[in-house]
Amino acid sequence: MFMKINLVSVNRRGLSFLCNNLLVVLSCLVLLFASCKKESPGKEEVKAPKKSELLALSIYKPNEFGNMDYNDSTSTWSYKRSRQSTHFIVFWDKKYQHYDPGSQSIPAAYRVNIDDLLAKAESFYEHNVTELKFAEVGVAKSNLDKYKLMIFLYYQDQWLATGSGYDDVIGALWVSPNTCQPVGSTIGHEIGHSFQYQVFCDLKNGAGFRYGFGGNGGNGFWEQTAQWQSFQSYPKEAFTSYYFGEYVKNYHRHIIHELPRYANYFIHYYWTYKHGIDMIGKLWRGARQPEDPVQAYMRLNGITTEQFNDEIYDAATRLTTFDMDALRQNGKDYIGKHTYKMNQLADGSFQVAYDHCPGTTGYNVIPLNVPAGGTVISAAFTGLPNAAGYNQVDAARAGWRYGYVALLENGTRVYSNMSKGTAGTASFTVPANCSKLWFIVTGAPTIYSPHAWDDNESNDEQWPYKVKFNHTNLLGYINVDENAIPKDTSFIYDVSFPLDMTAYSGKSVSIDLTKLATAFALQPAKITQLMGSSIKFYAVESNGSLNATTTANGYGHWFNAQGNVINWGTDARLFSEYDASTFVFSIGQYPGHNAVGDKYTIRQALVYEYEAGKKVQATFTFNVKIE
């Protein structure tokens, strides 16, 4: 069956044209457009195509066009309503009549700059042929040496962005005006599909993934690959598009999973990082039915499942911080965005939640508290195949890879040795100047099984596990005795910042979270949760009394020169505002109310009533100097 892949389509607004064959879809579209009630524009002659445009490559006439005469202006598609470049022809809808689609006489909703469309299309062609090598031209091995790729522009409001081709001969795409305003990654994506289609046109014999995986008929690899193809022209969109958010929520799934098929493009970056930018083209051209992309990749690169699992772990560790040349710069602001979910067990270990459990080739990125440089941390890992509440698998195939990634303050990455197996302890010496730390786990069964597109998560392979950390813990979790009796504690911070006459500038202070959690005998998340109920925020006046009235933003106060609470105004000198979710105090100045050398002491407190009538206090003292 080719229901999900024969007409490979994309819709950046979620639309999908999943019909059994291209003929049915286009026939439906013709009927739809014929009934359109939009008023067509009047007459305005467009330039006839130049003879030079028509000489180099031919224009293919699809079988379904029958006796259509391209030279007849009354034909559905006519040279009279077309323009060509070296490798493309654009035909536009009869509803444009004699107007150029870019004419100011065309309503803005339907206006398209055809010259820009062709110029961008040629640049996408260059990427796909010269760099990505989806086709081999100039050596009598591709129909691209005979025919131009075809673009059909419809005069309609409804979003249409579909890339595929005709008759196993030549690639084509069908678009609406709103996909070209301006021309960008959507068209790059659809031309990517046209080149995917072209692979089978040129090579036949099972090349081009014209089949489903796992015997079902669905094939999301077309969408994954087209995304990556388009991002070669728009590299920032790998992170700025909607689909990046989908990726970091679904990266635990199989890399060919149907659900995040528009978002699973990062494996392409890894494979080209390993083997060169043309690896994906080689994969498409070298595929043989019924292989899925993983099986084709292993065969083409001569690696075993064991070696492939090692590579998936390497990919996971690098994707934690996007540590590849093609991603590093654009991805630096997106480090730490991978989602995770772990459930704490009674013995202090953590077990991965069902909805984040790694599947085959999937992975988890688990952020950890960063201890002092030189600290030896460890993780006692236990695989839990077929644990209650998870999808059932063949436990004899169970396998995992796991280890650490550290990001230093200067941007250097440090990778631990990789551990593997169903149980073991992974240790790592935390490097000096470490700013972020993660524990990585991948699903790595000893026998690879393709993932079928069946829209059924209940039969997805899952590889659950639990892990217990020593000398570190999940980010935000502190090794505290939650049965201990809470006690008072105090914090003193020296803070300095430059005098500012115009802005409310200052400095942020992150508190010692371990000290606070230990004193209150609570995990940080619980401290945040109890704010406003059993934990209350106060200012501490200069005489030691508590003041519950806030005068700045949120949990915040303005202070006068004596360190007493005051409203914003003439006598206000400093403010201090506490973020209960990040445990950070923002301390700043009233512009123009201070002088260089001024020194102040201000205090605030958290008071925890852990039992009726029993309270403890955490006092935060800030000695502030204006420089």
UniProtKB/TrEMBL annotation:
Domain DUF4859: 504-613
Top-rank taxon: Bacteria
One Pfam family, short name: DUF6055
Family matches, as PROSITE patterns: PROKAR_LIPOPROTEIN
Full protein name: DUF4859 domain-containing protein
InterPro entries in UniProt: DUF4859, DUF6055
